[in-house]
Amino acid sequence: MHDQDRLLRYVRTPEGALLVDYRHKLPGRGAYTCLSLACIRQAVSRKQFERALRTTAPIAAAEELLEQLCAALRDRLEALLGMARKSSQVISGGNLVLAALDQPNRLAVVILADDVSAGVADKIISKARRQKVTCVSFSTKAVLGQLLGRGERSVTALMKGHLAEAFLGEWQKYQEISGES
Question: Exposed, middle or buried, 181 (CB in 10 Å: 0-12/13-18/19+)?
Fold first, then answer.
C-alpha cells in the first residue's frame, strides 16, 4: 500500500489497449502498480490488470508497458527542460557550463548529450565531479538544442532550484526503469 501519487496508473482505451497514465490525467477506471520493473512484470503475469479493470481482453506484454513508461518519462524530462528554459534556469553550451561550474553552488545538474565528443565530456565531467554536481547523459545534441530553442547543444546545465530537483527525481525514475546511466 502506497500513496496514489507514488504509484503508476494504467487505463484502458475504448479500443481495449492498456495505456500508462504517468501523469494520472486520463479518464476512466485505473489500475495501479508501484514504479518498478518487477511490479509491472508481476502484474502482467498474474493478470492483475484484467481483474482491476474488469475485463477479459488480453493485456499488453510487460515490455510494451515498459516502453510506454520510458517514453512518458522522457517526455516529462523534456518538458522539465523546456520549463527550465522558459524560467531562465538553463545554461547551455560547453564554455558557459564550464564557467558556471567555477561558481560554487550554482548548478544542480549537468546534462550531456548522448552524442557529445569524448574530449568535451571528459572535461565537463571532471570539473563537475570536483564541484559535486551530478552529470547525466540524456538525448542527442539536436534534440537538446531543439528543447532549448537553439542549435545543437552538447552540454546543458540546470541551476539549483525546484525544476532541477524535479528533473533529478524524474531522471532517477527513468534510469531505474530504462537501465540507462
Answer: exposed
